Amino acid sequence: MRDRFIRPLAATVLFAAAFGVGVPVFAQDQGEINRQLLAAAKDDDQQSVVAALQRGASVDAMNRIGDTALVTACKKGDTAMARTLIERGANVQHANALGDTPLMAAAYGGFDEIVALLLAHGADPLATDRLGKTAMEYAAGQGQTKVVAQLLDAGIDVNRAYKNDLTALMWAAGYDRAETAQLLLARGANRSLKDNRGMTAKDIAVQTKSERVAGLLSAS
């Protein structure tokens, strides 16, 4: 009688292994499998990520700070892993405990291939984190010019004001990101706009000793 229950389960596991189908959750400890998935993502081990998913790991399992495997892949710039996770249903809108989304993580790091992938799968470029910052602010502040261009191409207004009435040009000015500022100006950024303190991008550049951007904004 006992074999009637053991053999079907064994057959199911063998079938799953042979055809890449997820093993039933009851055959594994869910928490442990999820930990294996997250550890594999952290270690850039795509083969183990796929194996964990096949064993029934939740693609949106989170670590203690709320990062999913996709957020981790985006922070590390692992395009192949990000694509694999998205193809397997990862939530591109997921935000961790700080409100960071996969798009923000990729924008901060300047990983333009991942940014393109996320936008193509519906990532919201206007989502904000706990500080009220968006992917554009991270990209402009970090001087990730390619990502700034992608976000503009996705329909973001070059003169959009964010928290404290700061524009992308002001963020670039505050960190002396001259190449990014030059792109924003070429795409129509208004250098006369003021933040909630009454400061223009040039004022911010002068205040922060961002000499390259200050010079750029001083030019006619």
From TrEMBL:
- Keyword field: ANK repeat, Repeat
Q: Which InterPro entries match?
A: Ankyrin_rpt, Ankyrin_rpt-contain_sf
> Spans of the ANK repeats?
65-97, 98-130, 131-163, 164-196
Key word Repeat present: yes
User: Which Pfam family name is an example for this entry?
Assistant: Ank_2
Q: Which domain of life is it from?
A: Bacteria
Matches recorded under SUPFAM superfamilies:
Ankyrin repeat (SSF48403)
**What SMART domains does the record point to?**
ANK
Q: What is this protein called?
A: Uncharacterized protein
The organism's taxonomy opens as:
Bacteria, Pseudomonadati, Pseudomonadota, Betaproteobacteria, Burkholderiales
